[in-house]
Amino acid sequence: MSTGVNLKELAAELKLSPSTVSRALNDSYEISEATKKKVISMAEKLNYQPNPFARSLRENKSKTIAVVIPERMSSFFSKVVDGIEEVTQQYGYHLLVYSTHEDVDREKKIVNLLMNGRADAIIMSVSSQTSDISHLTRLHERGFPLVFFDRICSDIPTTKFITNDYESGFEGTKHLIQQGCRKIAFLMLSKELSITKDRYKGYLDALKQAGLSPEPQLNITCCQEEEQNIEAIKQLLTGANRPDGILSSVEKLALATYHAVKRTHLRIPEDIKILSFFSNLSIASLLNPSLTTITQPAFNIGEECAKLLMKKLTKPRQPDLPNQVITIPSQITIRSSTIVL
Amino acid sequence: MSTGVNLKELAAELKLSPSTVSRALNDSYEISEATKKKVISMAEKLNYQPNPFARSLRENKSKTIAVVIPERMSSFFSKVVDGIEEVTQQYGYHLLVYSTHEDVDREKKIVNLLMNGRADAIIMSVSSQTSDISHLTRLHERGFPLVFFDRICSDIPTTKFITNDYESGFEGTKHLIQQGCRKIAFLMLSKELSITKDRYKGYLDALKQAGLSPEPQLNITCCQEEEQNIEAIKQLLTGANRPDGILSSVEKLALATYHAVKRTHLRIPEDIKILSFFSNLSIASLLNPSLTTITQPAFNIGEECAKLLMKKLTKPRQPDLPNQVITIPSQITIRSSTIVL
DNA sequence: ATTATATACGGAAACGATTGCACGTGTTAT
DNA sequence: ATAACACGTGCAATCGTTTCCGTATATAAT
User: Fold this and answer.
1) Residue A150 contacts by C-beta under 8 Å, 6 or more apart in sequence?
2) CA–CA separation, B184 vs A172, rounded Å?
3) Range in A67-71, A91-95, A316-320, B131-135 with the lowest mean pLDDT
4) Which of A62, B172, B255, B287 is most buried when burial is the number of CB atoms within 10 A of its CB?
5) A50 contacts on B by Cβ (under 8 Å)
6) What b/e string do you get for B151-183 counting C-beta neighbours within 10 Å, with b at 16 or more?
7) Beta pairing, strands B292-295 & B331-333
8) B107 pLDDT higher than 70
């Protein structure tokens, strides 16, 4: 209803066959310059727009990438998607964006829907609830181009983009220790998550190096309900075994921590020092006190994912996506939440 | 390459014709229950997935909605998209999401790309730079289903969803006046924006009602560069004609204001009171001091846009989208940035 | 003059699903 | 026994492109 002329009508107008017109528009060598010019100008005049579905059907590709993220309201994921779009747009690709809301079942539904070829590839970061990855292995085994970022599946042999999670966890913890912390809590979304594991390992090794022993009660696994998280952290802060430092492995838990601290009489950083993986720099410096952050190169990660895929999808006869983990380092920015003046 | 069996192969496996299988899967009355059962179970067994492009080509619809927003890193727009997805997903629709980055040229490119029928409808909020709307009128005149939200185009006769911008601007300003403000600045992204106009009108009327006269120097039009905005606001705050209250018409300018205030020796709310349209409640209450906000029903706006479109697209013979503005009220939450204890 | 070759174009099949129409059964009514 | 009628199924066209072939003309080579 909304589309204008099609190829056949355009051809009729030009008194040429559809095949000639198609070739002319696709700049085929078989067509003379004169006809090409005529065809192109008439196409512009009639505002001819090729039907994307006819083309997709014929070419068996959609010029569409699916992006699957755990949540939209996150500066990290927003920036990653911006980075992806920046690249894909230049190649004329479109972006289907899905949020799993940290729910495996939704993730499975989305992935299964995408099996039908609606998208040429998937860029994703798994939900915190994802432990069964059969839906993803199936996808990959069918040869579907799949790239992970941030929250990856190690078991699936494809390319993954992450930040230096281990080192960042290590350095962040070390920084807290250097500032005098002896009891450091670790906040996470789920033990299953790749980022949790790596960041936690860095945290453990930093403790070890400083001769500190990890205490299981200081690890908190959070959920999707902000209020519950705040209360859990508050319990931790008001309990007998109160930590003097907190390493939050994701952005939203840093905010929950600030909320929790507000409900106590504790002071940051005097009584409790806070450091978090965090992507929203503007907010980090506005928090009171400003938050020491480990900033992931979100936009850049998105760009790299997209560049890799564009190379694979637009060049003929590309090899499969190699099974490797590409690391783009984060940056630690020390602010007031960890420094006592 | 990635798709499994197609209809013909499925039919061959069942020793039936493709048409029968198609009808069976679409639950046609012409097919016996027995065959339907057989077909469905075989389809499941072979994991048959209909090719979406073949279907789109034939049916001339894509089961896809395009969402065009000015930026991704905004809690307001993130929540709206979440609301849209919540509804469209139930109908099996997919979401193409585009960000214009507040750039009209990108907006035009995106809209023109969408003219070819890749999406069945567009839900959009225009960029702050959009004054020439020819790309949108053309789209609408072709009968393309188009719905606006938040930043709308009044001149295009279709359905628009907004919040009570005028009243919110009025009430917000009134609140500032009640708290003793006499010189209230108004921060905006662009004078062209529908939300700016309405909120500003509310602001003006509230001033008038209080017998205050508007001062042009207190209106600041901001840009895309956060640093520039911060400096501009700082100039305002340190100038001779310093305001004692600020009404920010968008979220990001409230953050810029907090940054600007940090660069002065002014205190909030004693020296300057701040109130803003703002969607991220968690952040609003963490700011120091906590921010008095006008909260738009973002998720709800998204849901309503989607519901309307789903009705139009999934029911046969629906009328055009009526030319009306539907208002969903915001809520004002008073916090510390406007209250001197 | 005849054959080879390049050039420029048209015809038609193909992609995979949906659907109007036709057709062959079996049942019932006359 | 034959006509009428469901009922279930198959054939073929269709959606709009792209592309494999085929072919007509013109030019060059033999």
Assistant:
1) A76, A80, A125, A161, A162, A163, A195, A296, A301
2) 43
3) A316-320
4) B172
5) 116
6) bbbeebebbbbbbbbbbbbbbbbbbbbebebeb
7) antiparallel
8) yes
Round to whole Å and give the CA distance between B176 and A240. 44
Residue written as token pair 């009220």: B329
Look at B57 and A62 and tell me if their CB atoms are within 8 Å.
no
Residue type, A254: A
In strand C, which positions have an atom below 7 A from any protein CB?
Answer: 7-12, 14-20
pLDDT digits (tens, 9 = 90+) for A114-155: 998 899 999 999 999 878 999 999 999 999 999 999 999 999
The Cα–Cα gap between B196 and B277 comes to: 11
| Confidence class for position B1, pLDDT limits 50, 70, 90 | very low
Cβ of A282 within 8 Å of Cβ of B143? The answer is: no
Mean pLDDT on A37-64: 94
pLDDT tens by residue, B121-132: 999 999 998 789
Q: What pTM was computed for the model? A: 0.95
Residue among A49, A78, A280 minimizing CB distance to B116? A49
Sheet holding B292-295, edge to edge: B219-221, B184-188, B245-248, B273-277, B292-295, B331-333
Whether any strand D atom is under 7 angstroms from the Cβ of B221: the reply reads no
Please classify residue B53 by burial: count the beta carbons closer than 10 Å to its beta carbon, then call 0-12 exposed, 13-18 middle and 19+ buried.
buried
Question: DSSP code of B322?
Answer: P
Place of tokens 């018409």: B249
pLDDT of residue B3: 59
Residue A56: alpha-carbon gap to chain centroid: 27
Q: Which helix (H) or strand (E) holds B24?
A: helix B18-25
Mutate to test the interface with A, among B86, B95, B116 (most CBs of A within 10 A): B116
Determine the straight-line distance between the first and last CA of chain A, rounded to whole angstroms.
68
Q: CA angle B16-B2-A79, nearest 5°?
A: 135
